[in-house]
Amino acid sequence: MRTYKLTVSYDGTRYQGWQKQQSTDNTIQGILEKAIEKTAGYPVEVNGSGRTDAGVHAKGQTVSICLSGKVSETKFQESLNLKLPEDIRILRAELMKNGFHARYSASGKCYEYHIDTKEKQGVFGRRYSFHYPKYLNQTSMKKAAEILTGTHDFGAFTDKKEEKSTRRTIYDIMIAGQGGEVRIEYRGNGFLYHMVRILTGTLLDAGTGKLSMEDIYSALETGRREKAGFTAPAKGLFLKEVYY
Amino acid sequence: MRTYKLTVSYDGTRYQGWQKQQSTDNTIQGILEKAIEKTAGYPVEVNGSGRTDAGVHAKGQTVSICLSGKVSETKFQESLNLKLPEDIRILRAELMKNGFHARYSASGKCYEYHIDTKEKQGVFGRRYSFHYPKYLNQTSMKKAAEILTGTHDFGAFTDKKEEKSTRRTIYDIMIAGQGGEVRIEYRGNGFLYHMVRILTGTLLDAGTGKLSMEDIYSALETGRREKAGFTAPAKGLFLKEVYY
């Protein structure tokens, strides 16, 4: 058996998220496993770097798979792309050392969030950005981002009761705005359930003045969900890269 | 009766073109007329600046309509947008002088064409660009564009037998390329059926070396369709602006 890493891009619009489910065939993991089974000729387990919610997109999700015998990466990738719908694409296939695992070997991730602040939502970005037609004070957003950067207990920044540690490190948050569009990029060693979407809601609330810098300190200190901002919608979110 | 101009943006992907047809309800003109009838309370004829083919998009198509009585432009626009699907949006509604007609009053148009030259087609641009993974010599494309600019008989640059004059003026053609993407912008006083798509195919053939500059002069001189380049697909094309 040899271990391969696949880098995958997908438009999450019409799927019910990453994770395979009993109740539906319409998940990205499920569709990938079927296409890989057809290509390889036997069932193959697909391990993703992590789940993405329904509607979330990926520019660089990664998965690990084990295949028996020798496989040409290029041919395998091409043959797989022919079997996949056009909104799921394999960007790269690479032979890895045995023991590589898309999730457990990952050292960090990068996410991108797109916000459309124009008065009317653009027709072409409607699936790929959150329409939020408000004035955003970018100085306040950047101050809030500075407070959130670093190693903290992010217990207030998840929508799930976590049993394990909610301590994570955010390496940096980059905010760039121009022409009615704001993009936020997050790099960190790991993110909790809904964490990037709640961080985004918190930064937007800082930008409109709904949350003060004190509120953000207080969210980090108390770990209480209601102290942080809202959960921004899935469709503006992209998993950009997984680091190893 | 008062005359209004509406500026409309649409994603042409799931429609059978602009023009109303007996055989289908799925045209942009047809859907606009139904929504306007619901908003106004009586049937209203929608006159577009011109047709767009199935799959072609618009960032600024214009239409003229006549409404009886006084209408608040903002309210009319908002109420209309509530009735329209999210891939058709009214960007502006303006009261015009009587006699204004979206098509006959137009002095020119601007079209944009998007080409994705990356080896693998990007997932997010797949509806909005033509995937053409070839090396394009931009110097040759720009030379060809210079030859095509100006007033010429564009008889070789249409897929329809035209009964009227095929003489048109192209004001300018701008070619910009970066990061695996090429955009071509065309401004002119009017364009024949498929003309922008054939101009694009011709510029791409000049970029790959399939057509020489002599071939392009010869297409203009002979008016023979087979001398010009191929008809580039609809999905890369955007009607950007109509000039008055």
UniProtKB/TrEMBL annotation, chains A, B:
Assembly information from the UniProt record: Homodimer.
Origin superkingdom: Bacteria
Domain Pseudouridine synthase I TruA alpha/beta: 8-104, 144-244
Alphabetical list of HAMAP family matching this protein: TruA
Listed GO biological process terms: tRNA pseudouridine synthesis
Purpose of the protein: Formation of pseudouridine at positions 38, 39 and 40 in the anticodon stem and loop of transfer RNAs.
MF annotations from Gene Ontology: RNA binding; tRNA pseudouridine(38-40) synthase activity
Record key words, sorted: Isomerase, tRNA processing
InterPro entries named in the record: PsdUridine_synth_cat_dom_sf, PsdUridine_synth_TruA, PsdUridine_synth_TruA_a/b_dom, PsdUridine_synth_TruA_C, TruA/RsuA/RluB/E/F_N
SUPFAM superfamilies for the chain: Pseudouridine synthase (SSF55120)
Organism whose genome encodes this protein: Mediterraneibacter hominis
Pfam family for this entry, one: PseudoU_synth_1
Protein known as: tRNA pseudouridine synthase A
Similarity section: Belongs to the tRNA pseudouridine synthase TruA family.
Active site: 53
Binding-site positions, substrate: 111
EC supergroup of this enzyme: isomerase
Entry's EC annotation: 5.4.99.12
CDD domains in UniProt: PseudoU_synth_EcTruA
